[in-house]
Amino acid sequence: MKHRRVTFPHMGHIHIALKAMLESIGLEVIVPPPITKRTLSRGIQYSPEFACLPLKINLGNFLEAFDLGANTIVMAGGWGPCRFGYYAQVQREILRDLGCNFELIVLEAPDTKFSAILGQVKELAGNCSWRQIGYAVRLGWEKVKALDALEIRVQQLRPREIRGGQVEAMYREVLNDIDRAANIKQIRAALQEGYSRFQKLILDMEKPVVRIGLVGEIYTVLEPFTNLHIERHLGRLGAEVTRSIYLSQWVNDHLFAGLLRIPSTKTYWNLSVPYINYWVGGHGRETVGGAVYFAQQGYDGVIQIGPLTCMPEIVAQSILPQVSLEQGIPVLTLYFDEHSGEAGLLTRLEAFVDLVRRRKKREKKARPKSQPVPIW
Amino acid sequence: MSRRVGIPRALFYYYFYPQWSAFFQELGAEVVLSAPTHKGILEAGVRAAVDEACLPVKVFYGHVLELVPQVDYLFLPRLVSVEHKSYICPKFMGLPDMIKSNIRVLPPILDLCMDLSHNDRQYRRDLYRIGKIFTRNPWKIRQAERKSQQRLKEYQQLLHQGHLPVEALRLMDESIGRAKRLYETDKDAAVTVKDDQPGLTIGLLGHGYTLYDEFVSRQVIRKLRELGASVISQDILNETTIEEGNRHLPKRMFWTLGRRILGGAFHFFETGSVDGIIHLACFGCGPDSLVAELVEIEAHRRKDLPFMMLTVDEHTGEAGIVTRLEAFVDMIRRRQKYRRQLLLG
Predict the structure, then answer these.
(1) The domain containing residue A226 runs over which residues?
(2) Pick from A79, A314, A315: which is nearest to B254 by CB?
(3) Cα B193 from chain centroid?
């Protein structure tokens, strides 16, 4: 058996957890270089024109990892109806034609026999015992949890910082610490250390901050490169962002089959009735449910984001105006593809935050404690 | 007075209309079919739907809007899965919710949920629930269901005999003497194949509601026939052939229509029964963006069958399509001539 050098596609900070997990079962891991314009342009050069953005960026990741010597790809799959389930197969064919000889290991619920996935894991892990694999999973999970906790804190701090960019710089340092942490104890220490560093920031706690819920397709929501750092921009505009999807929740729902009792997509599903009464694949239903959730929690606005032509998000987008009207919350939909420009995004965000802020002020004046009414 | 049930002439009309119409007619309802797509329908649909929706969905909105003032009930099925462990497209799964959200005034909706991915229990319950609106006699519902299944089978037989769906639908209506009323408006929909220029067959791939809706496809079928080519599509192939073609895939395809397209494509590649393949897709179609890529990669590797991909949306001009079709057919003709010369030495 040849020596495996494993790589995987980027999605937000998932690489920190995945790297730790794969390395602790003794694999050599090659993390693809951070996503840049170059990654994207290499990806779109070889991808089908009308495929959604994540496929193109993933392909760019694989090509850049190939240059660094990777020969095995580990990625997730699925059984539809979202396009993601067939990514691996299309990418395999494209990579083959480009002469990149990758071995693709697709981790997905098997079509017929459940034991197949365990076989795949064992095959990947080689000589490791199940005990070691269990530890690797725990290590990865701990990192995911730490990353999410950190991110939530950062989302709260961003709109309140006095000198712009401080939080961001600190965030990157703490991320590096978590990345370097080799065991569970160190991860927890790194997180605590991060918290105490944040304590030293000078904040403006009086600042009027609007609260915005970010809903949409998971990859666009989690990967700052695809959404053109929308959270950072919103933070600078004085908006506190909460997302409907966090990594830990996704991992729990999809990889642990919802076994852990943390908030899960079930909540959103229940809230999505009667606007959307059936599962529509991807995160369409979570998007609608998320919007309802944020409205009920008293948020000031909801922004839906997704890759252009994303099917489940189009379903959700069609339904969101009704949610907006009946739940009384402004909703903005933004799609991203390889042509999206940061200036255009910024203009729209500024306008939206202005609208939300003015609406909030007016409401405070007119009806101090009454129910919100639709603005259009 | 019998109650009128509206069925939009869009999306799954091309696959299930005989079944649905038979079901409602057996229950004593009058079936109202919307007119063939025309500009007004498209414009109304474009206004009602979100910009990002694909052309067939916008057209569907238009058909619904056209039916609204004419009917007592609107048949709006939620097609999740029409066969085991396969799906159609997320937009079909959310279609009734989308319509209800975007179109304010609607007649009562008959929302059949068709999810056969695991079993047909829910589907049968829904059929019964809908049947009860029209009759209190469960036996009659059962009868209507049987009849509708039978009509579907007849329809599929016609397809497998080589009739394209629009023609098969017309034949079926002629056989029960209703052709006049339903098809007055699209009398010239089916163009007879010209026999004077033999030897050119085009394999047409795509979703049924794109290929056979003349307004959506910009009359691709008719134009190919006018250029002297006979046209076959993946929909005239039977299940075994499709399954056979899909063996070439590394992973089971989970889109019903994508599976048919790929099965058809591999059948065309393997048997060489066509001289060229055209894939007609709508802009923004999710499944087609990957399915077409797989077909294209395969065509590229094999190198012996010309392949062209056409994308349409509401802005597509007819002239552009004609130019490309002409060029494609010319190219195949020249190729054939060149080959003949090679053979003759």
Answers:
(1) 209-376
(2) A79
(3) 20
